[in-house]
Specification:
Layout (H helix, E strand, L loop, with lengths): L14 H9 L5 H5 L5 E3 L15 E8 L4 E4 L4 E9 L2 E8 L13 E11 L2 E5 L2 E3 L1 H8 L3 E3 L8 H10 L1 H5 L7 H6 L5 H9 L4 H30 L10 H13 L6 H15 L5 E6 L5 H14 L3 E5 L3 H15 L6 E4 L5 H13 L4 E4 L13 E7 L6 H9 L5 E6 L5 H7 L4 E5 L10 E5 L4 H13 L3 E5 L8 H18 L5 E4 L5 H12 L5 E4 L12 E6 L7 H8 L10 E5 L5 H12 L3 H11 L25 H14 L10
Parallel strand pairs: 5-7, 10-15, 10-16, 11-13, 11-14, 12-13, 14-15, 17-22, 18-20, 18-21, 19-20, 21-22
Antiparallel strand pairs: 1-9, 2-4, 2-6, 3-4, 4-5, 6-7, 6-8
Helix pairs in contact: 7-8, 8-22, 9-11, 10-11, 12-18, 20-21
Bound molecules: adenosine-5'-diphosphate (ADP) and magnesium ion.
Length: 663
C-alpha cells in the first residue's frame, strides 16, 4: 500500500464506506492519514452525584432506580431514566435512541459520562455515554481521537481505517537531516503522524503537534518565498486612471462618516500601489469593526472605473450575500454591474455570471472562493480582494498566475498578529495596519454573569428592542453530538420566544440550514423584520448589522477568547451603545478569570495571548483563527516558536525541501 492508493484498498473499506469517506474529502490513503482529530476524549474518575454543578463534564457511578421510559416527543423520541448513587440522583435523557429502552434494567449499575444541566431543581444529563465498570477502567487510560464527522462515517470507522494503514504512515520519509531533528529537538515525522491519531499521552501528543505545525509552517514559507520571487517583479497591467482616483475622492466625500486615519492611510497605500509599475500585493490588517469593507470597496471602484474587472472573495455564502448588498448600495451611482456568485445559485444563474465575466459585462463579482475556479474566465481581471478568507490563498494566487496577467491582490484580515511574526508570515506582501476605530464608536459594555442573570438579560433585550434595536443570542453549545445541534437552537429559540412574548420576533440560524434559508434569515434580520437572532457560531465571521446592540453568549466559558472577541465584534458597529453579555454557565474560578480578560480589553492580540496563557491542559488545538491561515495544526499563537524555527531552517536550506514535505 502507498499513500496514493485509493481508500478502497484499505482493509475493511468497501464501496459504500468509501463513498462516505469521499464526502469527508478522503479519497486516498494520504487524505486519510492527514485527516486529523479535532479533539481527544479523556475520561475522569467518577465523582459523587452531590458534588456536581451545572456545566460540569463528569462521570458518575450510578444505579438505575426507575424503569426506562420511552416516548415520542415533539421532535424526537425521548428515552429517559433516573439513576442514583448514595448521594443523589440524576435524570438521564437520550434523543432518538429508542433501543436503549431494552438495554438498561432497573437495579443495574453503570458509569454515565456527560455534561450536567440543571432543569428546575433536577440534575439532568442529556445524551450521556454509558459504560460498564470494566469498560470504563479501560477508557480511563486512553486518549481517544475525535474526528470531525459527517453522516455515514463513524468515529470508529476512521480510527479502524487509520489502524489499518499504520505501515504506510511509518514509511513516510523524513526530509529533515537527522542532525536537525536531534539538535532542534523535533519528533521524527512519521512518529508525529502516528501520535496525532493515537497519542500515547498528553506530553507526547504535544510534541507531535509541534512537529506537524513545524512542517506546515516550513512548507508554507517555502511556497511564499517562491511566490515573492515571482510577484515582486511582476508588472502592473492594471494601472488605475486619474478619473478613477477622482471618482474615489467623490465617493469619500459622499460617505456618511469621516474616514479614520488608518483607513485614509490604507487607501493611500492602495492607490499608490495600483498606480505603480508593479502589481499590488497588500494586506490590510485591522481588528473587527475597524471598517475594512469601505477600503475594499474603494479599491474595487478605482479598478473598475479604470476599465478592469474585480472580484471580492469571502469564506461563506452568507457573508457573500451581505457584501453583495452593501457593495451594490455603495456603488449604485457608478453604474457598474456587480454580480453575486455562490454555490447555492441555480446552474442557470451561475452560467449567466460566468458568461458575463467572460464577456466583460460584469464589472465586479462577489462570492466564495468558487469564483476563481479553473473554469472561470475573466475578460480582464484587475483586482482580487479577499475578506476574512484563508491566508491570502497561496494556492489561489498560484492558480491566478497560471491564468496570465496577474491581478492586484488585496487581503483584508482581522487576525491580530505581532509585528515580528507578521513579517515572517506575510513576507511576500506589503502591510497596512488600521489601528484606530471609527471615532463616534462607543466602547462595547461587557458583563460576565451566571445563569441566574438570564431573566434580567431577557428583560434588557426587551428594552433594547423597544428602543428599536436588535439582539443576537448565541445558543448553548452541544458537544460531540451534531445531530442535536440544530434541535438545540430550535428549542432555545422556542423558549426564548415564549419568554419575550409574541410582539418580539425571534428567529434562528444554524449551520445545518440550507444556504438559501440562511440568506433569507439574515436578510430579514438586517431589514429589521427579525428582532432577535438565535444562532450558533455561524454568524461569527463578518456579519454586519449596525442596528444590533446586544450580543448575549450562552456557555461563554466553552469558547476560546479569540472566538468570543470575534462574536462580540458583531455588535458595537453603529452609533448606539452596545452590550455584550457573557453567560458563564460553569461558575469555576478559571472560567471567570478567562472571561474577565474580555471584560477588560478590546484588543484582539492581547486577548489571543491571554487565551493562550490561561488555556487548560486538555486544549490541544489552540485558538481558532478567523480563517486567515491555511494550516490544519499550526497556529501562530500556540506555535510561534515553531514558526521561528521554520523560518530559521528555511533560511539555512533555501529550496532544498521544496516538494519533499508531504502534507
Ligand atoms: P470590519 O473591519 O470588521 O470588516 P466593517 O467594514 O464591516 O468592519 O465596518 C463596520 C461598520 O462600521 C460598518 O457599518 C461601516 O459602515 C462602519 N464604518 C466604517 N468606517 C467607518 C468610519 N470611518 N466611521 C464610522 N463608521 C464607519
Ligand atoms: Mg469585515
Amino acid at each position: 500500500m502507498r499513500l496514493e492508493d485509493d481508500i478502497k484498498t484499505v482493509k475493511g473499506i468497501g464501496d459504500k464506506t468509501a463513498q462516505n469517506f469521499n464526502k469527508l474529502g478522503i479519497y486516498n490513503i494520504k487524505d486519510l492519514v492527514f485527516y486529523y482529530p479535532r479533539s481527544y476524549k479523556t475520561y475522569s474518575e467518577p465523582v459523587p452525584v452531590s458534588s456536581v454543578t451545572e456545566g460540569d463534564r463528569v462521570a458518575v457511578f450510578c444505579r438505575v432506580v426507575t424503569y426506562v421510559e420511552s416516548h415520542k416527543g415533539r421532535r424526537y423520541n425521548i428515552t429517559s431514566l433516573t439513576a442514583a448513587d448514595d448521594t443523589g440522583s440524576i435524570r438521564m435523557v437520550w434523543f432518538n435512541m429508542p433501543f436503549l429502552r431494552n438495554l438498561f434494567k432497573k437495579g443495574d449499575s453503570y458509569i454515565f459520562y456527560g455534561i450536567i444541566k440543571i432543569k428546575g431543581n433536577m440534575r439532568v444529563m442529556e445524551m450521556p455515554e454509558y459504560f460498564t465498570q470494566i469498560k470504563y477502567q479501560k477508557a480511563l487510560s486512553t486518549m481517544q481521537p475525535i474526528y470531525p464527522l459527517k453522516s455515514g462515517v463513524t468515529n470508529n470507522s476512521i480510527t479502524r481505517a487509520i489502524e489499518a494503514v499504520k505501515d504506510v504512515v511509518l514509511s513516510i520519509p523524513e526530509y529533515l537531516p537527522e542532525k536537525e531533528i536531534n539538535e532542534r529537538g523535533l519528533m521524527p515525522r512519521c512518529d508525529a503522524l502516528l501520535q496525532i491519531h493515537f497519542p500515547k499521552d498528553e506530553a507526547t501528543l504535544r510534541e507531535a503537534l509541534k512537529r506537524i505545525a513545524f512542517d506546515e509552517f516550513l512548507e508554507f514559507l517555502i511556497r511564499i518565498r517562491s511566490l515573492r520571487e515571482s510577484t515582486v517583479t511582476e508588472s502592473n497591467y492594471h494601472v488605475i486612471t486619474d478619473e478613477s482616483i477622482s471618482k474615489k475622492d467623490g465617493f469619500i466625500a459622499g460617505l456618511p462618516f469621516e474616514l479614520t486615519e488608518g483607513q485614509k492611510a490604507a487607501i493611500a497605500d492602495i492607490e499608490s500601489d495600483m498606480k505603480s509599475e508593479h502589481v499590488m500585493n497588500r494586506l490590510i490588517q485591522g481588528d473587527v469593526g475597524s471598517g475594512k469593507t469601505v477600503v475594499a470597496v474603494m479599491a474595487l471602484l478605482m479598478n473598475s472605473v479604470s476599465g478592469h474587472q474585480g472580484a471580492l472573495m469571502v469564506p461563506t455564502e452568507v457573508l457573500a450575500m451581505q457584501h453583495f448588498e452593501d457593495v451594490c448600495r455603495m456603488l449604485r451611482p457608478y453604474k457598474l454591474k456587480v454580480s453575486l456568485l455562490t454555490g447555492s445559485m441555480t446552474a442557470k444563474e451561475k452560467r449567466q455570471v460566468y458568461s458575463d465575466l467572460k464577456s466583460g459585462a460584469c464589472d465586479i463579482v462577489i462570492g466564495t472562493h468558487a469564483i476563481i475556479q479553473d473554469s472561470t474566465e475573466f475578460k480582464d481581471l484587475g483586482l482580487v480582494v479577499t475578506d476574512e478568507q484563508h491566508r491570502f490563498g497561496v494556492k489561489q494566487r498560484e492558480k491566478l498566475s497560471e491564468k496570465g496577467r496577474i491581478p492586484h491582490i488585496l487581503i483584508m484580515s482581522a487576525t491580530p498578529i505581532p509585528r515580528t511574526l507578521a513579517i515572517i508570515l506575510y513576507a511576500d506582501m506589503d502591510i497596512s495596519v488600521i489601528k484606530d476605530m471609527p471615532a463616534e464608536r462607543k466602547r462595547i459594555k461587557n458583563c460576565v454573569v451566571d445563569t441566574s442573570y438570564r431573566p434580567s438579560a431577557y428583560k434588557f433585550i426587551q428594552q433594547q428592542i423597544a428602543e428599536g434595536h436588535q439582539a443576537y443570542v448565541i445558543c448553548p453549545m452541544v458537544e460531540e453530538n451534531e445531530i442535536t445541534e440544530a434541535e438545540n437552537v430550535i428549542n432555545y429559540s422556542d423558549d426564548l420566544q415564549r419568554e419575550l412574548g409574541p410582539s418580539i420576533k425571534v428567529a434562528y440560524l444554524h449551520g445545518k440550514m440550507k444556504e438559501a434559508e440562511k440568506k433569507d434569515i439574515l436578510h430579514s434580520f438586517v431589514n429589521k423584520e427579525i428582532d432577535v437572532l438565535v444562532s450558533t457560531t455561524v454568524i461569527e465571521v463578518g456579519i454586519n448589522n449596525p442596528n444590533a446592540t446586544i450580543m448575549m453568549i450562552e456557555n461563554a466559558e466553552r469558547f476560546g477568547l479569540a472566538q468570543l472577541h470575534q462574536l462580540r465584534g458583531r455588535v458595537g458597529r453603529g452609533q448606539a451603545q452596545s452590550y455584550c453579555i457573557f453567560i458563564n454557565v460553569k461558575k469555576s474560578k478559571d472560567s471567570m478569570e478567562r472571561l474577565k480578560v474580555l471584560e477588560d480589553s478590546n484588543d484582539g492580540f492581547y486577548i489571543a495571548s491571554e487565551d493562550l496563557r490561561l488555556r487548560g491542559p486538555g486544549d490541544f488545538f489552540g485558538i481558532r483563527q478567523s480563517g486567515d491561515m491555511d494550516f490544519k495544526i499550526a497556529d501562530i499563537y500556540n506555535y510561534s516558536d515553531m514558526l521561528r524555527l521554520a523560518q530559521d531552517i528555511s533560511l539555512v536550506y533555501g529550496r532544498e525541501f521544496d516538494g519533499k514535505i508531504v502534507l
